[in-house]
Amino acid sequence: MHGISRVIDWNSNKAYQCPRCRHDTVADPSRREVYTCGTRFARFPRLQRFLRHVGITCEWCTKRHPVSVDGEPFGFLRHRHNGRGTYAEDQFEAWLYDTDEHPDHRDRVRYLNTRPKRADAMADIAHWRSFLDRDEDDLSPVLAVVADETFYKYGPDMTDEQEAGFLDGTLDVYGVGILRPYAPPHRRRGQFYAAEETFTWGLIAPAGLEGIYTQQAPEPLAAHAPQL
After folding, report:
1. Closest CA to 190 of 111, 109, 115, 133
2. N or C, where is the chain less crowded by C-beta within 10 Å?
């Protein structure tokens, strides 16, 4: 098929590896599925048109989604798909750019955590920003602008102009809300969590706004953001 990379042989004797980059992917690949992590591989590539396609996470093949703090690159999120069928789970990995401490390790990044929700993964990035850049006793909340991956961008209520913006990458859909730190004597003192009740979802705005804001939300979303 044009525009889709070909399916290559999965290494059946190395159950954990992506056959192209050799990094960990999935523990128990099925004979009846095509796995996609940038690389597409299956036990029987010639049967790919009859096999179910499954998205997985491969450390080196998967696209990063940068998260900025007040407009400056700080970390990134990565979408991860675990399990199969009715047991499948969508999860999000939080990573931190780490160019100073270990400059030659893991492509200059540090893994933080895997969370069930994008906002929760961003809270881990907010915690590290707090840990590195401010007093640990500062319990000030921050704003999170989070890409809304559940929003149906091509429904009947979308205008032609909006659909065109989604397709060419100039528009995206966001949620905006507050990340709060746990207060002492909580055992996770200083770590952030997403205050779900504060989030407003389904906000259409220019692409590239996802991030953490310590003062105020970006102008296109300011009217929908809770006050810090």
Report:
1. 133
2. N
Count of alpha carbons within 13 Å of 226, Cβ hemisphere only? Answer: 19
Residue type (1 letter), 186: H
Of 145, 149, 129, residue with least CA distance to 191? 129
Residue 128, SS3? helix
Q: What is the per-residue DSSP string for 161-200?
A: HHHHHHHHTSEEEEEEEEEEEPPTTSTTTT-EEEEEEEEE
Nearest-CA neighbor of 24 among 32, 15, 33, 16?
16
DSSP-assigned states of every residue in 28-78: S--TTEEEESSSEEESSGGGGGGSEEEE---TTTSPPEEEEETTEEEEEEE
| DSSP for residue 106 | G
φ, ψ of residue 109 in degrees (nearest 5):
-135, 160
Torsion of CA 22, 28, 31, 34, to 10 degrees: -50
